[in-house]
UniProtKB/TrEMBL annotation:
<dbReference type="GO" id="GO:0005524">
    <property type="term" value="F:ATP binding"/>
</dbReference>
<dbReference type="InterPro" id="IPR014729">
    <property type="entry name" value="Rossmann-like_a/b/a_fold"/>
</dbReference>
<dbReference type="GO" id="GO:0006431">
    <property type="term" value="P:methionyl-tRNA aminoacylation"/>
</dbReference>
<feature type="domain" description="Methionyl/Leucyl tRNA synthetase">
    <location>
        <begin position="18"/>
        <end position="269"/>
    </location>
</feature>
<keyword id="KW-0067">ATP-binding</keyword>
<keyword id="KW-0648">Protein biosynthesis</keyword>
<dbReference type="InterPro" id="IPR023457">
    <property type="entry name" value="Met-tRNA_synth_2"/>
</dbReference>
<comment type="similarity">
    <text>Belongs to the class-I aminoacyl-tRNA synthetase family.</text>
</comment>
<keyword id="KW-0030">Aminoacyl-tRNA synthetase</keyword>
<dbReference type="InterPro" id="IPR015413">
    <property type="entry name" value="Methionyl/Leucyl_tRNA_Synth"/>
</dbReference>
<dbReference type="InterPro" id="IPR033911">
    <property type="entry name" value="MetRS_core"/>
</dbReference>
<dbReference type="Pfam" id="PF09334">
    <property type="entry name" value="tRNA-synt_1g"/>
</dbReference>
<protein>
    <recommendedName>
        <fullName>methionine--tRNA ligase</fullName>
        <ecNumber>6.1.1.10</ecNumber>
    </recommendedName>
</protein>
<keyword id="KW-0436">Ligase</keyword>
<dbReference type="GO" id="GO:0004825">
    <property type="term" value="F:methionine-tRNA ligase activity"/>
</dbReference>
<keyword id="KW-0547">Nucleotide-binding</keyword>
Length: 283
């Protein structure tokens, strides 16, 4: 309860409320951690409705959103589906439904349950990609680095270490201890370095990260000279949204899963988005 009281949705009264959970990765069945996060968000949503005299959280209320859902693309899901003898779409249908049914069983009053395999999300992601590309913020380059299949991400040289496993030296990510391998491929990159200083200032000056003791950890993730790989070669990743005008590349999580918060707000219809954006709290 103490941590709940420190979250943003209990701080100030506003005329609108937009609360989100993470969208949960659909490579396996839900567990109590997923439910815990969602119930906290549900409590915040119900509290905001009560403050404005709305007693029925299951009824739609203009200006009040509480969204959750499943993140369904990526190599891990592609591999998990193959192991289960199913297509990725069949696999995600089953797992996503498990999440949905769990939340129904515990009377979670979400106003939207988004799946990244939905057409509305694909439309939003393609629109976001086009917008970023038109602004010159996406470019194609040969990217090399230490890649973890388990974590589905690249790590820099400073983020890895060598450990001994069964008498053999193995490179692993310091944060997760999962094995990494040095690979290189042509990807699309997002010019994150253009915004790193602005992001750092925003994080430091605003009341953004709670509890605040996690702020230094977040700041360490922002490197001034580092851009972000936002696509994967179709030879490695087939289950994902295709990069517009490039069938050889699939859009990666940073411009896929993260756009879900815009998808549920109505993007690319900016009239709808401007009515709710940004989220009041993201758990």
């Amino acid at each position: 309860m103490r941590n709940l009281l420190r979250t943003p949705f209990l701080i100030a009264k506003r005329s609108k409320s937009f609360i989100t959970t993470p969208i949960f990765y659909a490579n396996g069945d839900p567990h109590i951690g997923h439910l815990y996060t969602t119930v906290l968000a549900d409590a915040g949503h119900r509290w905001n409705l009560l403050k404005c005299g709305n007693l029925n959280p299951k009824k739609a209320h203009h200006g009040y959103m509480f969204t959750t859902g499943t993140d369904e693309h990526g190599i891990k899901i592609q591999n998990a589906a193959a192991k289960a003898g199913q297509s990725p779409n069949q696999f995600c249908d089953r797992v996503s439904n498990r999440f949905y049914q769990l939340f129904q069983r515990f009377n979670v009053a979400h106003t939207d349950f988004v799946r990244t395999s939905e057409d509305r999300h694909r439309v939003a992601v393609e629109a976001m990609w086009k917008s970023l590309n038109d602004q010159g913020l996406i470019y194609k380059d040969t990217y090399s680095g230490w890649y973890s299949i388990t974590d589905e991400c690249f790590y820099s040289e400073t983020d890895i270490e060598t450990v001994n496993v069964d008498g053999k030296d193995v490179k692993v990510a310091k944060a997760t201890k999962n094995e990494v391998e040095l690979i290189g491929e042509t990807n699309y990159m997002f010019r994150l370095s253009h915004f790193s200083e602005d992001i750092r200032k925003w994080l430091i000056s605003g009341n953004v990260i709670r509890p605040k003791e996690y702020l230094p950890q977040v700041l360490q993730c922002i490197r001034k000279d580092e851009d972000l790989s936002v696509s994967r070669d179709v030879k490695r990743l087939q289950w994902g949204i295709t990069v517009p005008n490039d069938p050889e590349q699939k859009i990666y999580v940073w411009i896929d899963a993260l756009v879900n918060y815009l998808t549920v707000a109505g993007y690319p219809d900016m009239h709808k988005v401007n009515g709710m954006w940004p989220p009041r709290a993201t758990l």
